[in-house]
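Q: Structure for this?
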Amino acid sequence: MYSTCMSGTDTARRLVEATQELLWERGYVGTSPRAIQQRAGAGQGSMYHHFGGKPDLARAAVRRSAAQVREAADAVLAREGSARERVRAYLEREREVLRGCRVGGLAQDPDVVADPELRAPLAETFTWLRGRLADVLEEGRAGGEFGPGLDTAGTAAAIVAVVQGGYVLARSAGEPGPFHEAADGLLALLDAHAARATPAS
Amino acid sequence: MYSTCMSGTDTARRLVEATQELLWERGYVGTSPRAIQQRAGAGQGSMYHHFGGKPDLARAAVRRSAAQVREAADAVLAREGSARERVRAYLEREREVLRGCRVGGLAQDPDVVADPELRAPLAETFTWLRGRLADVLEEGRAGGEFGPGLDTAGTAAAIVAVVQGGYVLARSAGEPGPFHEAADGLLALLDAHAARATPAS
DNA sequence: GTCTATACCTAGATAGAC
DNA sequence: GTCTATCTAGGTATAGAC
């Protein structure tokens, strides 16, 4: 599942990968067919042969980036360890913080949210991620790691939001510090729940 | 302080306001001088008479939007009530969730973060906001509302990040629900700290 | 499949008349 | 102060040759 394999020729693959990079760096409005062609080393004819145009190419690129983001998150959340440790690993895993999220960043673009086919991978990614984190938290609660009162769905939503908002704070500040401060702050709040579940003897 | 008054003529004011609206709706790359002029009801000549060009106009608009965001947040955080209640009011105040944040949304734009004069108002706004929220939390801690172990700075960063990330989740989903789920989830985590400070007898 | 030529529109700005 | 030309570059796409 979450396959990132691609059908089609090598040129088509390079076009999609170039589009993924440019969407990440410049967003949808900031990405031109010309720039895509140059980065992919392909001509106009190739691009319009394989894809119907910029929106078509963007849809393929966004779907692939979304699948990759889900794969990367799942790789961390499926590891061994306590729920708290897996959440911590997710919050603090190596991230190119100042680049932001390949998927979440696109939500700022009005042309993306206006196109159902472009927005769908974003919605699916965050719905899946919130569910995946809620499952991890539920495992922890069932194992006595957290108090029974932990709102797993709400906490999961807060975790995802802190990551996405952390990118905003870091990019605004021009340095990654605020991302980590927000993540650490959230973890500390979660630990208060863990402390309640297993009070110091 | 945080004055949003503007110097200059009526035309200059309309140009700045039109730019503020367009930056909010379409971002920096998505906002053209032509669109600004049309929305402001001004001609080319007027715009280039009052401002040096698109970057100059954008700097004025971003500074003003940042000041307005700080004013609005301060109005909520300076109200009467407990710290917990003021944080809740900040998280749940009326927001046009699907429009996102006038200031934070610009952090996604590479041309904004690359220009120190454009990025500075973003950095100042979030630095101020985190400090203001940390002060509110500190008041609550001093008053016994939270346990002494509350990390006020980290929690403040998490609150701001949840709001900014909540916008991302809501815009991705196409509906405001995820914003409020994340905000409620964070509040519930904070309440665990309040419960520890004043355990049920 | 890939190339080049062509087309039309917009971005962003300057010059000079009024 | 505001207007109307005018300009160069790029965005986005189609047509048709190879």
